[in-house]
Amino acid sequence: MSRRQMHLAAHFPGVNNTTVWSEPESGSQIEFSSFAHMARTAERAKFDFMFLAEGLRLREQNGAVYDLDVVGRPDNAAILAAVAAVTERLGLAATISSTFNEPYEVARRLASIDHLSGGRAAWNVVTSWDKFTGENFRRGGYLAQGDRYLRATQFLDTVMTLLDSWHGDEIVADKASAAFLRDGDAGRFDVHVDQFDIRGRFSVPRSPQGRPVVLQAGDSDEGREFAAAGADAIFTRHGSLEAGQAFYADVKRRLAAHGRTEDQLKILPATTFALGDTQAEAEERGREIRRQQVSGQTALRFLEQVWNRDLSHLDPDGPLPEIDPLVVDADTPRVSQGRAADRMYRDPLATAREWRERAAAHNLSIRDLMTEVTSRQSFVGTPQAVAEEMERFVDQRASDGFILVPHITPTGLDEFADKVVPILQERGSFRADYTGTTLRDHLGLAPLDTHAKV
Amino acid sequence: MPDTPLHLGVLLDGAGRHPAAWREPGTRPAELLTAGYWADLVAEAEHGLLDLVAVDDSLGLQSADPFASDDRTDQVRGRLDASMLASRIAPLTAHVGILPTVVVTHTEPFHVSTTIATLDYVSSGRGGVQVRVAARPDDAALFGRRTIPTDRDELLRELFGEAADAVEVIRRLWDSWEDDAIIRDAATGRFIDRDRLHYIDFEGPHFSVRGPSITPRPPQGQPIVAALAHRAEPFALVGTSCDLGFVTPRDAADARQIVASIREAQAGAGREAETVHVWADLTVVLDDDASAARDRLARLDATDPLTDDARVFAGSPTELADLLDDLRGAGLTGFRLRPAVLPDDLRQVTRGLVPELQRRGLFRAAYEASTLRGLLGLPRPADRYATTAGSAR
């Protein structure tokens, strides 16, 4: 078939306002049955993988635990090990921090999941940044922006060194000759870099994939370079076709400098959707979901995250505040803590100016404005229209596929799986069945050289 | 409360406890890293109505030398992370408790707490953990963040002190969400009642942890915490911090002394009213014909001798039942058997020993509870923060 193939992944609904918890069908965010349900739906639809985000401290705002969104998650690695028991082909992607872990432990967990799933493990490498989260860990403290990517890079390299310390041919287990290992030095490693000074023998022999599939989610220049150097897929947030194409071109262009080809790094934007039998019905549903996602209280909390002030006295149906955002340096705690997005608005004064102009031009309340700027669905329409639009993104090089973010736990993927996926399969843009067993197979990544050097 | 007078678990590791086990005809040494191998073993344990399976683990690669690494090629080397393995096999079973070994020195107590809470969720209340210390300099080198004291007494004091702190943090984090913290109150827009979430504010020499956990309180409230104990420091850890201690008595008199030490620590910690189990570990080689079992052990030892911290028993299931009944009189509440060869000696436990104990009225005829705490006769505990101030607001 000639049509360009897309990759699809399922993001288990997270702990932000995208996830609507107040609907009757909204289920548990922590019971295993929810994870099993979504994984089985994704596998039934032949998805590449299921993805879990991570947060190692509960979010706070105005000095108290944030209570408007879903709160509470399992340990990613442990839940995915369990999901491996109820699936056979689906890839299993865990976000694991490179700041509040040590490479030896992470390598053990990832290699173990890869063994226990028959080669389906993936690792989304994230850097954490704040003293706030550090208060839960031995390491504590804070890494300067520059050191975060240094540590992340050295962390990733070190984990790969550990995983590559076994090549896959060491275990012979020959009862007659009493040879269990071919090599009494198997698993030997010795790492001396700025961030890590470790040596010994790694305890988990080489897993089916050798290394887990590596995902990366950063969007800064450093993040893009990090991904181009060593990731197999990027989890992006570029919503529009044009922004997606620009990002796609930029990242793919960087690969050659690292001796890599374009098909070795998949670009997968986070994607939301609203479906209906008609375009009008889908749009109405989209509006209804957005209304649920951005309550008046949620709108005020969003505004506080940009303004960096307690604005709880404001009326969400009223206008934006006269007062300007409070600008602080990176080391000063903000009204909102534990959110990656807190530092996204690099110039809050400019954001405030732009929002005031927009609100004035269209006569928008705080809630109206926050609904507009935060949560529009990526694709809204009939299953046929959504399928065609997704293909357009892939055909026009805005992405290699999508990480779908349903808004309901755990059934939010069911409708997409039942209605959109068959159309994509019929049109030849998505697999009708798995052709391989490992996640690398699903993503079209070549098997690794087992004697590769980092 | 449990209706079984005696509790039974097994310790699973590689091809069996005996270093020569992997060379026995029935073993599957090339499959030790596959889920299917472990699924079969755990199914067998559950068939035998056992209280729990413990999955052994260590930070570093296995070694025949207890104090250093080695370069031997004639023994099993390489293993899976026990907590990942435990979660992988949990959905395949419905009754048996699952207890991975987790090293709590070097590692993050926050992660251990959420990992075991997650095991408790995926097993619907059958999770627990055997905490372990890593005392070797080559273990420390895997993390590279500290040096290990060379004085052995100082070392053990430091490591078991750290383990006790880790257990305290792990337990506080499990309680940091009250059971009814998730309210989903659409009227006020609140998913949780943050007055029912709690900072734990632990501060110690090795780590300080603020909390609350990222994971809601697990199904059992407090999953089971166990430790293997051979001397005073770990006896104290069991008495002050654990629900279950695994000990290695030479005989009934030794068992009586060990139990007394643990009970003393338990009382010292004000835990007299709580149930703290003390089980003896025994490595077992079993055959219907007792002399065949002893011949097999001799043959295994001739290939590669076993040196074990626990007493090694070779004989018939009937003889073993006699021994367990005798040791039981010393105040032990159960036994953790270490099958010398897997699956052979595990099957001897489930199909030979268990029926024999059932005939004597010493072991359950069916699972009587759906959680591990239930099987061990432990109530679901109240949350330590439920009536106190200090909520996370």
Automatic annotation (TrEMBL), chain A:
Residues 26-396 form the Luciferase-like domain. SUPFAM superfamilies: Bacterial luciferase-like (SSF51679). Pfam families: Bac_luciferase. Keywords: Flavoprotein, FMN, Monooxygenase, Oxidoreductase. FMN binds at residues 95, 149, 220. GO terms for molecular function: monooxygenase activity; oxidoreductase activity, acting on paired donors, with incorporation or reduction of molecular oxygen. CDD domains: Nitrilotriacetate_monoxgenase (cd01095). Belongs to the NtaA/SnaA/DszA monooxygenase family. This is Nitrilotriacetate monooxygenase component A.
From TrEMBL, chain B:
Gene3D superfamilies: Luciferase-like domain. The keyword Membrane does not apply. Keywords: Flavoprotein, FMN, Monooxygenase, Oxidoreductase. GO terms for molecular function: monooxygenase activity; oxidoreductase activity, acting on paired donors, with incorporation or reduction of molecular oxygen. The keyword Flavoprotein applies. It comes from the Bacteria. It holds the Pfam family Bac_luciferase. Residues 35-299 form the Luciferase-like domain. InterPro entries: Diverse_substr_monoxygenases (IPR051260), Luciferase-like_dom (IPR011251), Luciferase-like_sf (IPR036661), NTA_MOA (IPR016215). FMN binds at residues 57, 101. Belongs to the NtaA/SnaA/DszA monooxygenase family. This is FMNH2-utilizing oxygenase.
